[in-house]
Design goal:
By secondary structure, the protein is of the alpha/beta class. Helix content is about 35%, strand content about 15%.
Length: about 300
């Protein structure tokens, strides 16, 4: 645990900056210490010799199993489909305590200072996966296949992270001005603890939050584009594409994943075809029930309407 904590403590220099900016944004004044940030090129701690932690992570306002318009009983389904896996749900009531008990005071202060629910939810998933590993699934994601089947046998000894394609623009920019033609899903991620891409992602997200608060006035709202590029799938895709480029020595833009039909290993990250995590009734290669459809995201998000743009 101390080794893991030291990784997180290293993010605190950037975190210290955001604490000041959070105060300027009228969130609240906080005290902090300064630490040295780790080198992004630090030796990875993840090991292909270690299995994925058998942990399923979700967050929701409470820990009730009673279906709601948002959960539709999906949390129970995750446990049924993945017997033998530990299921953890972090709630609105205990998320601050979870972060405070496991991360440095500076990182904890950044998290507890955020008031926008979706920014908090995004940062929480990255922190949890960095420290604990396992599967993160948003509360409105329905499992179709057991997690044990997600990684083909031929890749079992080489894979430290599994991601899926959410959108594929077929070699056109995924969003205006983007250098990428695909968008990776961050509503479902499988990863081992301390993966270097997750270390970079947490550092990037905190830096993005710094810039966001720097650009905002007290009366300004957080827009849809702000969320997507600061903590959401735009930021996630950006970091993973950088990681792919770094580990292969070849620039990755998403064009190499256009119309992907089989899982593709890039470094130690297994990228699934769109149907894996991004199957939609109106956009798919295989009909419902096909074994390649691992999860289904219902997009019952409650945050979109409160973020203009």
């Amino acid at each position: 645990m101390n080794r893991k904590r030291n990784l997180i403590v290293g993010l605190a220099t950037t975190a210290s900056l955001i604490l000041v900016l959070c105060y300027l944004y009228n969130i609240r004044n906080l005290s902090f210490q300064n630490f040295d940030a780790p080198s992004p090129a630090a030796e990875p701690i993840t090991s292909t010799q270690q299995p994925f932690p058998k942990k399923i992570w979700q967050s929701w306002k409470d820990d009730s199993d009673d279906p709601t318009s948002r959960t539709i009983g999906f949390p129970r389904k995750w446990r049924e489909v993945n017997s033998g896996w530990r299921y953890e749900r972090i709630t609105d009531a205990n998320c601050d305590a979870y972060v405070a008990s496991r991360f440095s005071p500076d990182v904890s202060a950044v998290f507890t200072s955020l008031r926008d629910p979706i920014l908090r939810a995004d940062l929480l998933r990255y922190l949890v996966l960095l420290l604990e590993g396992g599967v993160w699934a948003d509360i409105d994601v329905l499992p179709h296949q057991p997690i044990s089947s997600w990684v083909p046998d031929s890749y079992q000894n080489e894979t430290n992270m599994v991601v899926g394609i959410e959108n594929d623009k077929h070699k056109s920019p995924i969003w205006p001005g983007s250098p990428y033609s695909i968008q990776l899903a961050q509503y479902t991620i499988l990863v081992k603890p301390n993966h270097p891409a997750m270390i970079r992602l947490v550092d990037r997200v905190i830096n993005n939050l710094v810039r966001l608060f720097e650009s905002k006035k007290q009366t300004d709202s957080v827009s849809f584009a702000d969320v997507m590029s600061t903590t959401g799938p735009f930021a996630f895709t950006d970091v993973l594409m950088e990681y792919f480029t770094e580990v292969t020595g070849v620039e990755h833009t998403g064009n190499e994943l256009d119309r992907l039909q089989e899982p593709k290993l890039i470094g130690d990250v297994l990228v699934l075809p769109k149907d894996g995590f991004g199957w939609l009734p109106q956009d798919h290669d295989h009909d419902r029930g096909h074994k390649s459809i691992l999860v289904e995201h219902l997009f019952i998000g409650s945050w979109r309407s409160s973020h203009p743009g």
